[in-house]
Amino acid sequence: MSATAETGVAMRIILPDAHRRMPWKNGAGTTTEIAIDPPGADVAGRFRWRLSIADVERSGPFSAFPGYDRTIMVIAGGGMELAVGQRPAQRLDRLFVPFVFSGDTPAECRLLEGPIRDFNLMAERSSARSHLEVLHLGDAPHLCDVLLGDLIVHCFDGGVDFAVPAGALAGALPADGTAIITNAGRAHQVLQLSAAGGRATVAIIEMTPVGATLPSPTLG
């Protein structure tokens, strides 16, 4: 972790060798946990947010996570249908398209064409608001706001160089690497992302404390 006292911005980088592999809460599959807040928290207890990748080898129910908002997207395989409560089943057969649902409600998946991998974000509803966006980076750099809370960058493929110039923070992510940038100050900062090898696919995740007042976005 590195930080600057002037801006209140801190950064943590998580590489794939630090991931934790574990069974699902309901024992029906396996998950690779990328990061959890607070670090080291037990998924069976309370946590503020969690980022993971699940290997889904057969159709069946998802684990229940009451009090959490969930975002899921297929990142490999032929997709699935996801039935959440009494809502019509949602067909998730396009890669890197997020779908948001409540962890309070029973959810069951039906695989469409064999095993899949999916990317999962869980946020405790009472403490954080979450938003996930996928970017396909090319030659041009991308700028985004670093608002109050955590900004998480996860690289799916390629490599990413990033910098927060005002906070004098910079780094690089390989495929499956993750950066967690925490802004504890009141002024928002700017993050610049560039594809290290000409292209990269990344998830940008905003974790904003409940009740925080946010400025209007200024960058795109």
Describe the structure.
The chain has 220 residues and is mainly beta. It has two domains: 2-15 and 128-209, Sandwich (Jelly Rolls), CATH 2.60.120; 18-124, Sandwich (Jelly Rolls). The chain has no helices and 18 strands. It has strands at 2-4, 9-14, 20-23, 30-37, 49-56, 60-61, 68-76, 80-84, 90-92, 99-102, 107-111, 116-124, 128-137, 142-146, 149-164, 169-173, 178-183, 189-209. The strands form three sheets. Strands 1, 2, 13, 14, 15, 16, 17 and 18 form an eight-stranded antiparallel sheet that branches. A six-stranded antiparallel sheet has the order 3-4-5-12-7-10, with no helix packed on it. The chain has a four-stranded antiparallel sheet with strand order 6-11-8-9, with no helix packed on it. The model is unreliable at 215-220 (pLDDT under 50).
Overall geometry comes to globular
Topology-level CATH name of the largest domain: Jelly Rolls
Number of domains: 2
Quickly give the structural class.
mainly beta
Q: Roughly how many Å is the radius of gyration? A: 17 Å
In total, the number of strands is: 18
Main attributes of the structure:
single chain, mainly beta, Jelly Rolls, 6-stranded antiparallel β-sheet, 0% helix, 59% strand
Question: How do you describe this structure in short?
Answer:
The protein has 220 residues and is mostly beta strands. The chain is built from no helices and 18 strands. It is globular, with a radius of gyration of 17 Å.
Give a topology summary.
Layout: E1 2-4, E2 9-14, E3 20-23, E4 30-37, E5 49-56, E6 60-61, E7 68-76, E8 80-84, E9 90-92, E10 99-102, E11 107-111, E12 116-124, E13 128-137, E14 142-146, E15 149-164, E16 169-173, E17 178-183, E18 189-209
Antiparallel strand pairs: 1-2, 2-17, 3-4, 4-5, 5-12, 6-11, 7-10, 7-12, 8-9, 8-11, 13-18, 14-18, 15-16, 15-17, 15-18
